[in-house]
Amino acid sequence: MIGRGRRTWRAAAALLLLLAGVSRGEPVRASAASAGSGPPERVADPVPAPDAAAADLADADSHYVRRDAGHVGSRADPREIVEAISGYERAAARDAESAEVRWKLARALYFFGTDTGADDSTRRTSYDRARRAGEDAIAIIARRRSPGARPRELDPARAAALVRGDRDAAPAWFWTAVAWGEWALASGRVEAARRGAATRIRDDSATLIRIDPLFEEGGGHRILGRLHDQAPKIPFITGWVSRDEAIRNLRMAVEIAPSNLVNLHFLAEALAHRGELAEAARIEARVADAVPSARHLVEELAIQESARRNLATWKR
Predict the structure, then answer these.
(1) Are 264 and 287 in contact (CB under 8 A)?
(2) How far apart are CA 229 and CA 238, in angstroms?
């Protein structure tokens, strides 16, 4: 256990060094060795940038799909996801107009912050970088449709109309909303709401629903429902928050994907917050007893642990 904690700390340190380097536009590599020892090594650019970017993207994808390798329960060993982040960062440095690279970077940074046991400061840094990568992806997609477009100045209906049909639109809006949500939780819900995070998440999830309501198994409804359940209701800032909207959207997510453990878990918690413990407990029991997906093993193991904690609490 001590050795594993030491590796986790070193990998987190390597990621922070990686983020510091790419923020200055410096291509870097976090090798398996560097994830456990020193700073990522700088790399040359021996092939044309587009080819190198494609190679880096493919390499990063290969590490991302192995992100749960070496996991202990719901905690992932960080080495594979650090390699994935490094590859996406290199690809982003070489291809300034790739939205795919940037939403995949946001997705990888989210996993690092959520599922590797990172400390609070490292998690906030990871989520902050994820939301910035997501914002970059959204801006790129909008430019592809209309040079000079400003999607952040459009309401969800017009933003969706602008980008609908672009293959990167749904994942970019989804992972940006996820990153904003996790950043808000890590930064403090009230403070994040005062800085406009809740409104941004609301609008991004509404845009995603208009782009593709089925994406990520009802992802837009899942995010919007969770937001209405978790966000503080602050007059003149988040007065639109509605627990009824939470239940409505989460039931829609479950209707779209009735076996998705996150959909079920979020609905159970929203019901519990309204005092509907009998239905909440039935749903959480389904979550706890399910066989986790091989594609999302660490993530679903974590959801099951949370479901079991809820069940134990609700029985008291």
Answers:
(1) yes
(2) 12
Please name which of 57, 164, 203, 181 lies closest in space to residue 127, comparing C-alpha atoms.
181
The two tokens of residue 277 are 């413990």
| Residue 163 token pair | 């980008």
Hey, which residues does 28 pair with through a beta bridge? 42
Tokens of 214: 């089925």
Q: Kindly state the tokens that stand for 203.
A: 């609008």
Mean pLDDT of the chain: 88
What is the DSSP secondary structure assignment for residue 33, as one 8-state letter? T
**Neighbour tally for 46: CB within 10 Å:** 6
* CB proximity list for 255: less than 8 A, separation 6 or greater: 218
Query: Token pair 């997501």 is at which residue?
Result: 134
Give the whole-angstrom CA distance, residue 138 versus residue 28: 24
Structure tokens, 100 = 């795919």
Rounded CA separation 145/129 (Å): 25
Residue 6 burial by CB count (10 A; 0-12/13-18/19+): exposed, middle or buried? exposed
The alpha carbon of 82 is separated from its chain's Cα centroid by a whole number of angstroms, namely 15
Q: Helix (H, G, I), strand (E, B), or coil: what is residue 68?
A: coil
pLDDT tens sequence across 125-174: 999 999 999 999 999 999 999 999 999 999 999 999 999 999 999 999 99
Instruction: Tell me the two tokens of residue 136.
Output: 């970059």
Question: Scanning the structure block, which residue is given the tokens 């709401």?
Answer: 193
Tens of pLDDT, residue by residue over 52-69, are 999 999 999 999 999 999
**Packed helices 297-314 and 277-289: angle between N→C axes, nearest 10 degrees:** 140
For 27, the token pair is 């291509």
∠ CA(194), CA(197), CA(199), 5° rounding?
95
CA–CA dist 231, 148 (Å, integer): 33
Bridge partners of residue 175, in order along the sequence: none
DSSP 262-315: HHHHHHHHHHHHTT-HHHHHHHHHHHHHSPPPSTTHHHHHHHHHHHHHHHHHHT
